[in-house]
């Protein structure tokens, strides 16, 4: 099966999931992936990392369901659920089909940081085997939103 390429949802610096200050991500409990430490801008669009159907949707996170049964999670900041949607603007609804690069939501990393929360954005291949997911960009490298950062081969 062809390798799925996941793109960065935000502009920033690629970090390992182990750097995320949340054990669910750092210990890869939900799956392997990476995190992007976003540029500190006032307003920033968060883009779909691949084609799929919006499954779970919250102001601070979304999951895309792929046609082949796989799913990808993008979490915007850590513990941002505590903001109860304040500062986040959704541009899609659940059940909508999106393409890689489509705008899913808008947020402010500056405001999230000001609230004392981590702005790290994990991108996770849900329930994937770590051996099936490869980094396409070295950790510590700065990427633009939409640049391929992960490869995921179906096991």
TrEMBL record:
Residues 22-127 form the PTS EIIA type-1 domain. Keywords: Kinase, Phosphotransferase system, Sugar transport, Transferase, Transport. It is found in: Cytoplasm. It comes from the Bacteria. SUPFAM superfamilies: Duplicated hybrid motif (SSF51261). Transmembrane segments: none annotated. InterPro entries: Dup_hybrid_motif (IPR011055), PTS_EIIA_1_perm (IPR001127), PTS_EIIA_component (IPR050890). Pfam families: PTS_EIIA_1 (PF00358). NCBIfam families: PTBA (TIGR00830). This is PTS glucose transporter subunit IIA. It comes from Cellulomonas wangleii.
């Amino acid at each position: 099966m062809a390798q799925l390429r996941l793109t960065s949802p935000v502009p920033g610096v690629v970090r390992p999931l182990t750097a995320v200050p949340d054990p669910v991500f750092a210990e890869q409990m939900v799956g392997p992936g990476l995190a992007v430490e976003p540029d500190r801008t006032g307003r920033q669009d968060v883009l779909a990392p691949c084609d799929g159907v919006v499954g779970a949707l919250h102001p601070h996170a979304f999951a895309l369901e792929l046609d082949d049964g796989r799913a990808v999670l993008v979490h915007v900041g850590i513990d941002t659920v505590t903001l109860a949607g304040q500062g986040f603007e959704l541009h899609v609804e659940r059940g909508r089909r999106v393409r890689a690069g489509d705008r899913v939501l808008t947020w402010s990393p500056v405001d999230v940081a000001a609230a004392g929360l981590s702005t790290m954005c994990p991108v996770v291949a849900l329930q994937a085997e770590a051996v099936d997911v490869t980094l396409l960009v070295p950790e510590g490298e700065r990427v633009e939103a939409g640049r391929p950062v992960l490869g995921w081969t179906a096991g």
